């Protein structure tokens, strides 16, 4: 995002996980200092949509575009 459209330092992120029909499965706020988040209790062989939204002192920004991820059997690579 261009600097003139930014609203300060990012303070936290909202990570949203939805199923393929868009129903939100989980939404979690994490500190801006975390560089990863673990999402537990996903079902095997299901495609999930992941989006991230940044927050500053001004409030929330727009959500990122969705990224799709399909779970596999536990222990498989």
What does this structure look like?
The protein is mostly beta strands. It has no helices and 5 strands. Strands 1, 2, 3, 4 and 5 form a 5-stranded antiparallel sheet that branches.
Query: Which of globular, elongated, flat, extended, rod-shaped describes the shape?
Result: elongated
Order of helices and strands: EEEEE
As a whole number of angstroms, the C-alpha radius of gyration is: 14 Å
Percent range for β-strand residues: over 45%
Structural category: mainly beta
Mean of the pLDDT scores?
88
Number of helices: 0
- How far is it from the N-terminal to the C-terminal residue, by CA? 35 Å
Number of strands: 5
> In this structure, how is the largest beta sheet organized?
5 strands, antiparallel
Q: Poorly predicted ranges (pLDDT <50, ≥5 residues)?
A: none
State the helicity in percent bands: under 10%
Short account of what is shown:
This protein is 0% helix and 45% strand.
Q: What brief labels describe this structure?
A:
mainly beta
Fold topology:
Elements lengths: L11 E8 L4 E8 L15 E10 L2 E5 L3 E4 L7
Antiparallel strand pairs: 1-2, 1-3, 3-4, 3-5
């Amino acid at each position: 995002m261009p600097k003139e459209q930014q609203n300060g330092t990012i303070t936290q992120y909202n990570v949203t996980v939805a199923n393929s029909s868009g129903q939100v499965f989980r939404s979690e706020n994490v500190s801006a200092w975390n560089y990863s988040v673990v999402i537990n209790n996903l079902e095997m062989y299901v495609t999930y949509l992941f989006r991230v939204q940044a927050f500053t002192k001004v409030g929330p920004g727009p959500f990122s575009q969705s990224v799709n991820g399909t779970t596999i059997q536990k222990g498989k690579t």
